[in-house]
Write a structure and sequence with these properties.
This protein has about 160 residues and is mainly α. Helix content is about 70%, strand content about 0%. It contains seven helices and no strands. The chain has helices at about 1-10, 15-35, 45-55, 60-80, 85-105, 115-130, 140-145. Helix 2 packs across helix 3 (about 45-55), helix 2 (about 15-35) crosses helix 6 (about 115-130) and helix 5 (about 85-105) packs antiparallel against helix 6. The N and C termini lie close together (about 5 Å). The mean pLDDT is about 90.
């Protein structure tokens, strides 16, 4: 089990991971806070639930809670580099649903609510899923703290 965790945390990226993680995480956390909390002019959970249901994503409340949580908590995790690959994977699934379920039929460009923006975010989160959190992340701290040391046989796995 520790080897799996180590594999998920190890990343040889440097500043490029930070440059990608911070703005993408911020954008996602802000969008999630709109859905969950109504911050930044958002509709809050009830409004997001109605929107999800109107788009055919049922049950609307559960879908809004899942999407908002993935964006908010995933975005925060990406910003600090905490379980980066896992957070990026969860957010990528959420973005893929948005891209194909909501935006696909509206064309490409953002001006028509097309796939452009969701595709950019999906590409960035997919890159982070592959790249990992990098040298300047909580993931790296966890590795260096030997919290998940694969050579430590003192605990049962």
């Amino acid at each position: 089990m520790k080897n799996v965790i180590n594999t998920l945390l190890i990343s040889h990226a440097g500043w490029e991971a930070v440059i990608l993680r911070l703005p993408i995480g911020l954008i996602l956390a802000a969008h999630g806070s709109q859905k969950l909390l109504g911050w930044f002019g958002g509709q809050g959970l009830d409004g997001a639930a109605q929107l999800m249901a109107s788009l055919g994503l049922h049950p609307g409340f559960l879908m809004a809670l899942a999407a908002g949580s993935a964006e908010f908590f995933g975005g925060v995790a990406l910003m600090v580099g905490l379980f980066t690959r896992f957070a990026a994977a969860i957010v990528s699934v959420t973005l893929a649903v948005a891209l194909f379920w909501v935006h696909w039929s509206k064309g490409f460009f953002l001006t028509t609510h097309g796939v452009e923006y969701a595709l950019a975010l999906l590409s960035a989160t997919a890159a982070l899923m592959i790249m990992g959190g990098g040298r300047f992340s909580v993931d790296r701290y966890l590795l260096e703290s030997h919290l998940f040391d694969p050579n430590d046989n003192s605990s049962s796995t």
